[in-house]
From TrEMBL:
Biological source species: Nitrogeniibacter mangrovi
Highest taxon in the source lineage: Bacteria
Pfam families attached to this UniProt entry: Gcw_chp
NCBIfam families per the UniProt record, alphabetical: gcw_chp
Protein name listed in UniProt: Uncharacterized protein
Keyword Signal on entry: yes
Signal peptide: 1-24
Entries under InterPro entries matching the protein: CHP02001 (IPR010239)
Keyword terms, alphabetized: Signal
Length: 261
């Protein structure tokens, strides 16, 4: 989500690269940058345990630029359901930060901007666009991460709910992740998270996921996972224009095939 290539070329130039990343220039500036891309087909788009494609398939892809100092920038996109995110043409995430290592511990701090082009919450002019700041810590196969919303949380505020509670800035998500390669090319993962929605606690929930991924070489991988949440079914059931309703937080399988370049 090709305009992305030109956007990242511009970013590289702003960071000091005067030729395509990976080609030598005076001072070997570009040797300090790496670019990776990925594209995948998923059985549905799931974010923090909630399905945003009404259980329909999703095509997802992104581009990342990393500098050997630890700085990085990226952009990622997916299709979404109009029923789940009214009028949104898709989701585009722009993120950046700094990652490093101290002894056996890794750390990562940055920002994540969620954008939903055309998205407008029913009956209002409010958008779903959301900005989060995050900090993560890892040790071996274990990772912890905290994300903090500095805007309203996906449009939760007085204009959209009319309940006089105010905005939802200060919402947060805390998660623990585990990933372990148990055989060459085979890895198992587990995840548990807690989404807190400030001032609208009835929309808060826990989510969890367990899965297996197989790496095939040349950047190819395939995986399967079981995902579930404690989200209130009454609040997270979404119906389309044909009155076909889906409980977006219920337990579900996620299958994917992806390639990285």
């Amino acid at each position: 989500m090709n305009p992305r290539r030109s956007q990242f070329a511009l970013i590289a130039l702003l960071l000091g690269a005067s030729a395509p990343v990976g080609h030598a220039v005076a001072g070997d500036m570009t040797d300090r940058f790496s670019v990776t891309t990925n594209v995948g087909l998923f059985s549905q788009y799931i974010f923090r345990g909630i399905s945003y494609t009404q259980e329909n398939p999703a095509v997802q892809g992104g581009v990342d630029i990393a500098h050997d100092s630890g700085l990085y920038l990226g952009i990622w996109g997916t299709n979404v359901s109009d029923a789940a995110l009214n009028n949104a043409a898709g989701e585009i995430d722009v993120y950046g930060g700094y990652a490093g290592q101290v002894g056996d511990f890794g750390y990562d701090v940055g920002f994540l901007q969620f954008l939903f082009p055309g998205g407008e919450i029913n009956g209002t002019s409010e958008s779903y666009n959301t900005l989060e700041l995050y900090a993560g810590l890892s040790w071996g196969p274990i990772g912890l991460k905290y994300s903090h919303t500095v805007s309203d949380y996906f449009g939760f505020n007085n204009d959209t709910f009319g309940q006089g509670r105010g905005g939802s800035s200060g919402s947060n998500y805390i998660e623990a992740n585990f990933n372990h390669e148990f055989l060459p090319g085979w890895s198992v993962s587990a995840h548990v998270g807690r989404q807190h929605v400030e001032e609208y606690s009835e929309y808060s929930f826990n989510d969890w996921k367990v899965g297996v991924v197989r790496q095939f070489g040349s950047g190819w991988e395939a995986g399967v996972a079981w995902v579930d949440t404690s989200a209130d079914s009454d609040l997270y059931t979404v119906c389309d224009d044909n009155s076909h309703c889906k409980d977006t937080g219920k337990g579900k399988w996620l299958v994917h095939v992806k390639r990285s370049f």
